[in-house]
Amino acid sequence: MRLSRYFLPVLKEAPAEAEIVSHKLMLRAGMIQQLSAGIYSWLPLGFAVLKKVEQIVREEMNAAGAIEILMPTIQPADLWRESGRYEAYGKEMLRIKDRHEREMLYGPTNEENVTDIFRRHVRSYRQLPLNLYHIQWKFRDEIRPRFGVMRGREFLMKDAYSFDLDYEGAKRSYDNMFVAYLRAFKRMGLTAIPMQAETGPIGGNMSHEFQILAQTGESAVYYDAAFEQIDFNAPDLDPEMLRSLYAAADEKHDPASCPVPPERLRSGRGIEVGHIFYFGTKYSKPMGAVVMGPDGTEVPVEMGSYGIGVSRLVGALIEAFHDEKGIIWPESVAPFRIGLVNLRPDDAATTAMAEELYMRFTAMGVDVLLDDRDERAGVKFATMDLIGLPWQVTVGPRGVKEDKVEIKSRRTGEREEVTPVELLERFAG
Amino acid sequence: MRLSRYFLPVLKEAPAEAEIVSHKLMLRAGMIQQLSAGIYSWLPLGFAVLKKVEQIVREEMNAAGAIEILMPTIQPADLWRESGRYEAYGKEMLRIKDRHEREMLYGPTNEENVTDIFRRHVRSYRQLPLNLYHIQWKFRDEIRPRFGVMRGREFLMKDAYSFDLDYEGAKRSYDNMFVAYLRAFKRMGLTAIPMQAETGPIGGNMSHEFQILAQTGESAVYYDAAFEQIDFNAPDLDPEMLRSLYAAADEKHDPASCPVPPERLRSGRGIEVGHIFYFGTKYSKPMGAVVMGPDGTEVPVEMGSYGIGVSRLVGALIEAFHDEKGIIWPESVAPFRIGLVNLRPDDAATTAMAEELYMRFTAMGVDVLLDDRDERAGVKFATMDLIGLPWQVTVGPRGVKEDKVEIKSRRTGEREEVTPVELLERFAG
């Protein structure tokens, strides 16, 4: 993509309403634009990251055997009356009347909807286990939306729902998602700490939330240093072992009774990015979602639900990865892999080399953003540091004479002079 | 994907509420599930097609230089008061009050939102032309939703918005989208006829709608046979030439005055799947979206908008491509390319060959659905014909003995016996 043809409205100053660093940087980097309190438009750079995060979540869900569907945003109130949640859910539910005065709502979550799909089509335990997920916009009418996409009203969530014949099956499904979550966050470069959690309005008997670590996190967390040693790509990752490792939020952590020896205890600040629930028959029983078991008797299906805040993760990633100059994207979620700076668009040799590299990277399938604008070098470097692409490649007249370009790692700040051929080789394959 | 692990709730009979063939087949093939009038959940097979259609639209928009963003579904009423449309828009607009009694709405379209983004960030003609698009769910509260996803209330639309300094620029942007639309529909295997259209609630001075041809189409269309001869992949496709070809809806077609000689006149039935508008300064003027021109004076930006009904296209494709047995997907939008039928899961040699082929296709990146269910052959063939995958490959005990499998084209019905090696070669690369 050429910056001259892109839409990247960077700002020098963060608007006053932004309180936290991710919100400030998302506004400054032209990633989002507020439309109304807690409701944002995703501009091209923000949209690109959102899609990358979404795709990692999708791939890990698919790898775990979950099947993607898409449920609508608007749901009928009657469905929520069946589960008893329509009255119970507070003012965070956006309630709507359609033109025929029918009561509807903008889904804050989809347990009822997916249970309805299940009960209409599944009859036998032979069709189990089943895990259906979707990635869809939700709405929660927060009384005081804040922190940009971290606590918005309209937000993108991945929610998966598992169906099993019995507790043992449900437990396997829960474990399966538990591990998939840790893998997904790891692929984004994040260390996620799973913690026992309250079940809240979803209800249920077992629940974990996943906090990713960031200096600017919203709450203190304490955890076993062993978390930092685990290979989350191991095929046989054991959820029981992982859950046995100590992890506690501030309010539950008691140094006096903490089972982890002090030298192994770590503390940090966490941001919740995922939450999983086992809730058994809480929805299947009132809604009549039953399956015939092997013994011929009908039983309500055992369910769990599993959420990841996809749009929230974009903010959380910035909280975890930034410095005073801007964002530092991990490669897996970067909107472009390389920022290619043409230092002197008015110089023919410089432009020829920059254009050649741009063309070659594009042909190689490497996402590159070419700064071909007629701007001062300082502006270009500041823009690249702000938007945080992992690699900055600078092409300037002096280097061109020596057949050299400069490559800089945004994360480490290390710079190196390489020939264009070496540069291309580095990003090949 | 293994059918035994997939979620494909096919139905023997179409529910009574389905009036048209696409609605019937989408329900029978387990593609969608109604949640409320005009509101559907997309089950795995339907979701897969929806994503394929969306991706073709996305690629053609990107190829045309449009830039993807994502605007929210919920918008503040005040923004629509600026354009004057809040009061003007009828009961099809879903109006909402949030917990603070602020008036909101579920966007039926996004001209106001995108104009707001533009006016906040663009100042100079140098940043033009600009074309921003998104693919997002919309809501129109149809008084009588019907025909499944063809006239739903919650629907997925691609809407693009162009910004130019003057009429000439706006015309180029319009032409650009005009051609991109024809290419996109062609990639889906559809013949689209562009027709001059009324501008309706979007307003404006120039407008075309795109009708795709299907025997079961909603309205009669008349067009120049030359449309069938055009190479829509030609790089220099001329929009003026295309617009000069005769095309008219039933109510505008007058045989007496029709300029096309009878031997070149074709008639068919059409389904509207796209609509493009040039409307100049209709939104930019009241909303103050101005740019500085080369002469230093500020002018309201010239705009157009360009919609494609992404979810509607899934239904329209079925209207265009089906027979009495079910759906016949064009390869470009098929949920899987191959349906691989293991005729006898209880036979070791048959299963070994079916599994081997499944593994190889998967490794080759060919989307394949393996029917590994313990079902009668007749049920399996009927399912494959119903869901309409382009190629059916059957592995049975008799063929296995001779190192042969059968491949059938869903479209032509032609069958052929080939060796597994020949089969794999056919789908390689």
Counted by DSSP, the helix tally of chain A is: 13
Rg of chain A (C-alpha, Å): 24 Å
What fraction of the residues of chain A are assigned to beta strands by DSSP? 25-35%
Q: Based on the structure given, which CATH architecture of the largest domain in chain A is correct?
A: 2-Layer Sandwich
Amount of helix of chain A: 25-40%
Biggest interface, CB < 8 A: A-B, 51 and 51 residues
Mean pLDDT of chain A: 95
- Sheet/helix structural class of chain A: alpha+beta
The low-pLDDT segments of chain A are none
Write the CATH fold name of the largest domain in chain A: BirA Bifunctional Protein, domain 2
What's the number of extended β-strand segments of chain A? 23
- CATH evolutionary superfamily of the largest domain in chain A: Bira Bifunctional Protein, Domain 2
**CATH class categorisation of the largest domain in chain A:** Alpha Beta
Main beta sheet strand tally, sense and closure of chain A:
9 strands, mixed
Instruction: Tell me the overall shape of chain A.
Output: globular
Number of domains of chain A: 2
Gap from first CA to last CA of chain A: 20 Å
Instruction: Indicate the multimeric state.
Output: homodimer
Q: In a few lines, what is going on in this structure?
A:
Chains A, B: Its EC number is 6.1.1.15. The structure is a homodimer. Chain A is α+β, with helices and mostly antiparallel strands and about 425 residues long.
